[in-house]
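Work Package 4 report. The design task specified in the project plan requires that, given a folded chain encoded as structure tokens, an amino acid be chosen for each position. We show below one input record used in the internal validation round.
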């Protein structure tokens, strides 16, 4: 049992063994450095030991395995590509990518815990914060001592965050924050939130809101049938007094939160490959073992078509992510390229989960196999961090020069 004072976690270990084997059809491993492989293998081992034995149970019971925050910090999953000076990993973007891939191989919700902490709560402080803010927050967030969340979406403004109504008003050394954010990963257990709010001139600013500030509450959202091992909530602000020292000084406008989203969407482009790999691996093993009409179902042409198409799509997604990572390493990955990779790879993973479910027949709908859990999770991943269609329109705008949003 884990109890952090407000939330209790009681998921039992199940006896399931994680049989996952990675399949590398195009020798993509040769594109990775020894450091990338070390990081990947360490996270893969951690997922097998710590995530796989509990995740079906956690997901069925809709309980977030909060004790994993500590382990995620220990394996360097919080801000792997942020500088060591702030207690972070100091690795490159491909290392960050393979870490996200392995975490999502375990579960999209576990990857979400890391994405939000590293890319959406720590990254804005690193990118837009003062040196004082960086030193105050980043080392403790990298070590998992402080958990953060990211508040952009509102009840009436999801795909169109520019319409947000959450606002700050000047009041001496402080600002007064009012409004509400919706669908916020980790909010009910977070110690702090990066909140995007409009100032009196209508310009969007990033504000660090701390748990315990009067008027700040984080009600949990219940009844999710997807991403069940991740905890989601609201952020509600009723005349919350926030010191001006908590405002991120170095950004104004929507490019603030959207830059953080670029970082996180990049991680999801890799993460989704992990979920797809898990579904493919399970489907391949099952189809070799399961016999119908006197032979393994893997011997039927229709099953082989499914498996062949799965590994083809996984390979294409791996190459897309690797190329994007190479561009990101030299600061050349554009938001539109990131949108294309997030959209393609998440959709690819969802299609593979659906095909894998078919290969498992009736067993595919049970928690004996990871397929349904991945499939349900990926429905969220297709929607958050910009929906499938929003990313299509971003690509459309890039290739035509015409803006379909305005
Ligand atoms: P637009 O006029 O296009 O842009 C406003 C300013 O932002 C700049 N910009 C970006 N900067 C960095 N990275 C990006 N990806 C950027 N995209 C745009 C842009 O250059 C401009 O800068 P400036 O200097 O001219 O002011 O903005 P718009 O209002 O037309 O909106 C465009 C649109 C629809 C693409 C955008 O609003 C959007 O991406 N909407 C989707 C919203 C979204 O993704 N929400 C995600 C919420 S967080 C979340 O889901 C976390 S889940 C975490 C987990 O659990 O893993
Ligand atoms: P809407 O914007 O209402 O969209 C509904 C549908 O309309 C979609 O299909 C969309 O593609 C379509 N649509 C909208 N505009 C257009 C258009 N111009 N053209 C064509 N189609 C359009 N947000 C955060 O800020 N922080 C978080 O930590 C976070 N975590 C999340 C965790 C979960 C489990 C979930 C489900 C969501 C989370 N989100 C978070 C919110 C998420 O980013 C939003 O759900 C997402 O951006 C979509 O917004 P919406 O749900 O309001 O849908």
């Amino acid at each position: 049992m884990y109890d952090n004072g407000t939330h209790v976690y009681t998921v039992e270990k199940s006896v399931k063994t994680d049989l996952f084997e990675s399949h590398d059809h195009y020798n993509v491993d040769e594109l990775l450095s020894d450091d990338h492989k070390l990081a990947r293998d360490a996270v893969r081992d951690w997922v097998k030991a710590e995530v796989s034995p509990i995740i079906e149970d956690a997901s069925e019971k809709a309980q977030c395995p909060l004790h994993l925050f500590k382990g995620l910090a220990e394996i360097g999953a919080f801000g792997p590509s942020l500088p060591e000076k702030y207690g972070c990993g100091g690795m490159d973007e491909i290392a960050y990518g393979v870490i996200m891939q392995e975490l999502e191989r375990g579960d999209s919700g576990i990857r979400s815990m890391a994405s939000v902490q590293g890319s959406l709560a720590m990254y804005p402080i690193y990118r837009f914060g003062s040196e004082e803010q960086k030193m105050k927050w980043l080392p403790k967030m990298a070590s998992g001592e402080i958990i953060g969340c990211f508040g952009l979406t509102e009840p009436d403004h999801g795909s169109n965050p520019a319409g947000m109504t959450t606002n700050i008003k000047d009041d001496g050394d402080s600002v007064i924050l009012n409004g509400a954010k919706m669908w916020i990963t980790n909010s009910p257990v977070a110690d702090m939130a990066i909140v995007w709010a409009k100032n009196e001139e209508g310009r969007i600013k990033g504000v660090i809101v701390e748990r315990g500030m009067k008027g700040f509450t984080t009600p949990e959202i219940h009844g999710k049938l997807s991403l069940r091992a991740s905890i989601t909530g609201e952020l509600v602000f009723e005349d919350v007094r926030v010191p001006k020292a908590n405002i991120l000084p170095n950004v104004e406008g929507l490019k603030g939160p959207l830059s953080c989203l670029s970082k996180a969407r990049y991680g999801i482009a890799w993460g989704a490959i992990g979920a797809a790999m898990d579904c493919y691996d399970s489907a391949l093993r099952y189809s070799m073992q399961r016999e119908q009409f006197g032979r393994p179902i893997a011997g039927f042409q229709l099953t082989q078509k499914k498996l062949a198409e799965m590994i083809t799509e996984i390979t294409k997604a791996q190459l897309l992510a690797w190329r994007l990572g190479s561009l990101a390493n030299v600061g050349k990955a554009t938001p539109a390229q990131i949108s294309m990779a997030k959209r393609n790879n998440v959709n690819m993973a969802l299609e593979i989960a659906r095909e894998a479910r078919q290969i498992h027949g009736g067993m595919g709908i049970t928690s004996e196999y990871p397929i349904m859990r991945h499939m349900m999770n990926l429905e969220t991943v297709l929607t958050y961090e910009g929906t499938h269609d929003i990313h299509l329109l971003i690509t459309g705008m890039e290739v035509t020069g015409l803006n379909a949003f305005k």
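The mean pLDDT is 97. Validation will be extended to a larger panel in the next phase.
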